[in-house]
Specification:
By secondary structure, the chain is mainly alpha-helical. GO terms for molecular function: metal ion binding.
Length: 152
């Protein structure tokens, strides 16, 4: 029984903790659900890799309140996201857009990976076909010079 309690406790502690305060929650469950969906895709600018829904930072709270305020005013999800991005910049998106200059970021990693695989293949093929270094000994001049150096 105690092990079951410990397992349940571990699962409860491993789950994400939501930072949304009770005074932030909207009365309309549909609007609240939309607010949660939007805030799950927005980055906390203080915590960096947390959504504003998970962050306890004051700025994240302000952003959550702003999202809810815009939804109450009647904005669509797209309009709310556009407003937040316009105000805080595109960095606020946890999943950046794939248009404009961002396409370079999305394409660069796979392209560089392919280039590195091709380069490694070419290197290995050239190395395989390269002539073996000569196994012959030193020439007479080289032996004479080596003997002089060792005698000194």
């Amino acid at each position: 029984m105690f092990r079951l309690f410990l397992a349940a406790l571990a699962l409860a502690l491993a789950s994400p903790s939501w930072a949304v305060q009770p005074d932030e929650i909207l009365d309309d469950p549909v609007l609240e659900s939309r607010a949660r969906d939007i805030s799950a895709g927005l980055r906390c600018l203080v915590c960096r890799n947390e959504s504003i829904d998970e962050s306890n930072a004051e700025l994240a709270r302000d952003m959550r309140l702003l999202v809810r305020e815009r939804l109450v005013e009647g904005d669509s999800n797209t309009e709310v996201m556009s407003f937040i991005v316009e105000r805080y910049g595109e960095y606020v998106l946890l999943r950046p857009t794939t248009d404009g200059a961002n396409i370079i970021l999305w394409v660069a990693a796979p392209v560089l990976f392919l280039i590195s695989i091709l380069s490694a293949g070419l290197y290995l093929r050239r190395r395989e076909n390269a002539p073996e270094p000569s196994k012959g000994g030193l020439s007479a001049e080289e032996e004479k010079r080596l003997k002089e150096l060792l005698d000194d």
